[in-house]
Amino acid sequence: MTTVPAPLPLAPAGNAPPVFQSFFMGGFECSTQRRPSGRRIDVIDATGHDRFAAQDYARLAAAGLRTARDGLRWHLIERVPGEYDFTSAQAQVTAARAAGVQVIWDLLHYGSPDFVDVFAPEFPEVFARFARAAAEFLRAETEGELWVCPVNEISFMAWGGGDVGYLNPFAHGRGDTLKRQLVRASIRAMDEVRATDPAARFLHAEPLISVQAHPERPEDHAHAQANHESQYAALDMLLGRLHPELGGGEAYVDVVGLNYYPYNQWHHHPEHHLREVLDMGHPAHRPLRGLLADVWARYGRPLLIAETGTEDAGRAPWFARVAAEALAARGAGVPVEGVCLYPVVNHPGWDDDRHCHNGLWDYPDALGGRAADPALAAALASAQRAEAGEPEPAAPPPEPAPAASTDPAREALTRLARAAPAIAAEAAARDRDGQFPAASFAALREAGLLTVTLSPEQGGLGLGGAGLLTLLRRVGRESLPVARLYEGHLNALLLVSRFGAPGQRARAVADARAGELFGVWNTEAAPGLHLEEAGAARWRLLGNKTFTSGAGHVTRPLLPAELPGGAGRAMVLLPAPVPPERFDPDFWSPLGMRPTVSFRADLDGLEIGAGDLIGAPGDYYAQPEFGGGALRFLAAQLGGADAAMTAARDVLRGLGRQGDDAQRLRFAGVAAGLEAAWQVTLRAARLLDTAPTERALAYVALARTVTEDACLLAAEAAERAVGARGLLAPHPAERIVRDLRMYLRQPAPDAARLALGAWVLDGPGPSDLAADPWDPDGDAAC
After folding, report:
1. Which H/E stretch holds residue 546?
2. Pairing mode, if any, of strands 370-372 and 210-212?
3. Residue 15: what pLDDT?
């Protein structure tokens, strides 16, 4: 390995080593160049990253990727020369800040406004003015150090756009001229960024290549060496070592970024398209650690593998190898500061719009959920453990052979086990910022849990009864706000399934499978929500809804509304999301359950078609479904009580107080109450299928009463057990107890107690032969 030199003086802002929030990073492809056809590529738009930035950054943070590369789209920001509008980037910078993810921002990633001529003498100043405006915007929106990559891959852009006509401006034989222009522009851009923020940090991302002469063509040695050395030209110019008239100097190179892909090593050939790529298994392939050491020896700057990745099944083994080589180089004294998985989401091909499967996550669904590549996710997790010095977990025992028939309840819990880590990881962050738990619902969607109540023929599991209640209790343990929203989604699907016409049911199934999120918004302020005729087969909504859980994220809300002339209350399933400007977030300032974003919605004037009315008037309140549906939120509440007791137990164990007799008595009482409530809830579900409606609904009221009492006891016991110390945020007990107490108040528990009391006092009593007053006929199955 090359001898490691003493580090050279860095730029004034780079005297300190870079402080990246995570060694492993995620990069969002942000190219915006025009194709030869004239069509402009905009990968951020094509991947939905601008629309789903909040979900994307929350997903990054949940995966431990606390640093990212992202880009500004110059052509959208400066549509008119000298006028800058950063609206197109606002969602990205806001989402990154909210998720606590540090970003290295690309200013020029192969695309510029149409009025810009990169060969023009004034180009460096045009770019510098844009860089100054960008720095002012980013500085105001960024917490901590500001990181900028002025021009991504000067060398590749000069070759592709100046030598071979592949990239805009499609020139030939002018690569060196373009390279000098891009270097001048980078230098001026850094000057302007530093004028705004003297402490700004810079990354220069350049391809890392290895070019060798083929053993059978030794005459190619000089050309191969020249091609190999060309990778350093841009950095040498920036440092003033080459063409010092460009204005370079030591202050203009801070961190050296190296973009490394499977095709970056090859045997030289006079015809470039005939070169032999040297893959990892080739005898002439050089280990990455050696290439990194070469760059460190040449520049003495901290290094970052700024891009690396490949497509399809090769993703995981490639990333694992690169990660291992980077850590080995770091262990040998080369200051490798990180590895950026690039891109982190799949994107369309530059040339043919094909679906490039090269990311950790796929294209977004309707709500921004992205399916993960399991193998790459596992490779990333393994690399993160290696970087942290943690051992690999023991291999799990082999799975037993699957049963001949699939148990829907067991399958649902297996799927939840895959989603649970993301839900648990996001819970505290969304409580702090009050935002919708987007990463949690992406995980539920990716695990196939948004369709569990659909029949197997519809692509679901046909889950219901005790199995569905068990699933909701488990979700409630991870996050009560997620469980509340999830239950609303399932409730709406069940209502459409029961009361919708065949075409409506088919549309709802298709929407659910496409990732649309459903919900039921029933609560309203006077005068409530009404329908009026708006022409042939059209209706207009008049009024409002309050406590619209999932506001802005539920895309298929189901709304009970009054028909004209006292004709009854109908269900409306909106075919599209409610426009965001119709929500009043100031309505929602709760003690707990903040991430449910249960705003007030002004629905005046929205129009629907006759096909958006579900069922007949009064169906929404049809029994026993309406009253029996309470069992689903009881299961979620019991899950929240489970979580409260777990959090309290963890505090006691941390303090060494779990052996205290008072605590044991307290926990014994709570455990008895929760188990009793659970068994009553399960029996209520059975009675709904077997007993007369009135008796079954009375027993549901009993289940609500017992569950409320048990959950309140759990909340109080948790508070008493942990004391003030355990109720200090960010300890989970404080958040969970707040959520639980808030959720217990939402479904009008006093009404359930009144109904139960009325049944006990006014209903038929048990017969003399009945041992169970709720089973007067002696039916043990109940």
Report:
1. strand 544-548
2. unpaired
3. 44
